[in-house]
Design goal:
about 500 residues, alpha/beta, Immunoglobulin-like, Rossmann fold, 3 domains, 11-stranded mixed sheet, about 25% strand, globular
């Protein structure tokens, strides 16, 4: 009996090593390959067979190893809108991919506000006639359980709760209306602006998951190695792990709590919200391929408890560091959207001003990062503001300035310091040329206690608050639904902030 099992195992190994010629599923027609970096192509073939690869007028060959894996690396190429073919052959087998461009690949990730499709964005009706763009390519894998809330997953979804099948990879698509209508509106408007400003082809990969906590997008190994965050991946049922957001665990229990045959490991059943799961399912398969940078719109699920807000800055810093390590690119651009404005007990929005300030401070601390403000386009009672165009375009301005070296305005007024002298608090800003208010309305949003609005006025490129005594701090935009209206000559808004008075003016 034992000999029979050994023979069967050997047959399975031989069959696995004798698989036909394939390219990794990350490759497809219509894709964008990252320019200016070495180009890796990889897949499987019969063990020991010769694999020939031809691309952009160059050829290479290699041998498939004992497991049937093969990989070749071509020299870096410049951006090109010329559609190219990739040809791979081994023995009498061959594969051809067509319509491949060289440009910049940006990953869009986060929660539902990044996932939010163009067809539900407020400008979609006007955008439909402009949707076709030969330089824009879309990769929009579908996560298992998308839009399935409050109920147990059916068997068809449970079967996909493994790292290979969680995202349904449908390949790269040209930016025809049918494709762009389903992709991230933020990502679409970002890419459209980058293309218009640079002429470089852009590919966007949308890995966002509605409701997902930041923990799922971070490698479990990185969490485990962190002295504080290792508690998030301790053995046991993650649905009962109190170091994870309460709301996230409640949603997970609704989906898989009573389902028996869910794939699992030592940390419990798999789910989109499980720490490390989205990273393992979405980011890790992409790692052999270079990308330009990361766009993140996330935070709503981590902003509902004081403990989660207090740790968020360090948690996202860990995410940034782990992605840069994974791609071996310490200067990889990483840009995010600050949480918007909302006034909702359901989302514990009283914590959002604090959370927004943590996001602001993180951008000042970690190099080659940046943040765009969205609080001036919030929806008072809806966590999903529908104006994603302005957000995508602000991200594009940030990227154009920092990642592309263009001379564009990308920042709103950025608080630098606040001082007191003779009954006046003077708040100084960077990027303050042309300091003004939106719509030329009276200046709003300043407070000395984080609750009560006080008089404030613009004097040249500073803000002055008349006061009866020296306060400890100045707050701006500290309401959940911020009514702050301070902008600069670029029309870009100031972030929420809390700042301690440190000097006399």
């Amino acid at each position: 009996m034992q000999k029979s099992w050994i023979i069967l195992l050997l047959l399975l190994v031989v069959q696995g090593a004798s698989a036909g010629l394939t390219l990794d599923r990350m490759f497809s027609n219509n894709m964008v390959l990252q320019r200016d970096v070495p180009l890796a192509f990889f897949g499987t073939a019969t063990a020991g067979s010769t694999v020939k690869v031809a691309f952009a007028g160059k050829q290479q060959h290699t041998l498939a190893d004992e497991r049937g894996s093969w990989k070749v690396v071509f020299r870096a190429l410049k951006a090109s809108a010329y559609p190219r073919e990739l040809r791979v052959s081994s023995g009498n087998e061959s594969l051809t991919l067509t319509n491949i461009l060289l440009g910049d690949v940006w990953i869009c990730t986060g929660q539902s506000n990044m996932e939010w499709p163009l067809k539900r964005e407020m400008h979609f009706k006007d955008e439909q006639q402009h949707a076709g763009n030969a330089l824009l390519r879309i990769n929009n894998p579908i996560p298992a359980g998308r839009y399935v809330y409050g109920v147990s997953y059916p068997d068809s979804l449970v079967a996909r709760l493994n790292t290979r099948d969680f995202y349904l990879w449908e390949g790269w698509q040209e930016s025809r209306l049918e494709q762009v209508s389903e992709t991230s509106a933020v990502g679409y408007y970002f890419a459209k602006q980058i293309i218009a400003s640079t002429g470089v082809p852009v590919g966007i990969i949308n890995l966002a998951i509605g409701g997902a906590p930041l923990e799922t997008f971070i490698p479990a190994e990185a969490l485990q190695a962190h002295p504080v965050f290792r508690s998030k991946v301790q053995p046991g049922d993650w649905l009962e792990n109190e170091s994870l957001p309460v709301w996230v665990r409640e949603r997970g229990r609704q989906n898989i709590g009573d389902v028996k045959q869910v794939p699992a490991d030592e940390r419990g059943k798999n789910h989109a919200y499980k720490p490390g799961f989205a990273y393992e399912s979405g980011i890790k398969p992409l790692l052999p391929l270079a990308v330009k940078g990361i766009l993140l719109y996330q935070g709503e699920s981590n902003a509902q408890e004081p403990e989660r807000v207090a740790e968020f800055r360090a948690l996202q810093a860990l995410m940034i560091a782990s992605y840069r390590d994974a791609w071996n690119n310490p200067e990889m651009p990483f840009y995010w959207v600050q949480l918007s404005s909302i006034d909702s007990l359901r989302y514990r929005s009283q914590l959002w001003p604090w959370f927004r300030n943590e996001q602001r401070l993180l951008a000042l601390e970690v190099p080659f990062t940046g943040m765009v403000v969205s609080s001036d386009h919030g929806a008072r009672h809806d966590v999903h503001p529908t104006n994603k165009k302005v957000i995508g375009e602000r991200l594009a301005r940030l990227a154009l300035k920092e990642a592309y070296g263009r001379k564009v305005g990308a920042y709103g007024p950025e608080v630098q310091k606040a001082g007191y002298k003779k009954g006046r608090v003077v708040v100084c800003f960077k990027h303050a040329k042309g300091l003004a208010t939106a719509g030329s309305a009276p200046l709003k949003g300043f407070s000395l206690d984080g609750k009560t609005e006080v008089e404030a006025r613009i004097e040249k490129n500073k803000v002055v608050l008349p006061v009866a005594h020296r306060p400890v701090k100045v707050y701006y935009g500290w309401q959940p639904y911020s009514e702050g209206n301070l902008i600069n000559e670029e029309g870009l808004p100031a972030s929420s902030f809390e700042i301690t008075l440190t000097t006399n003016h």
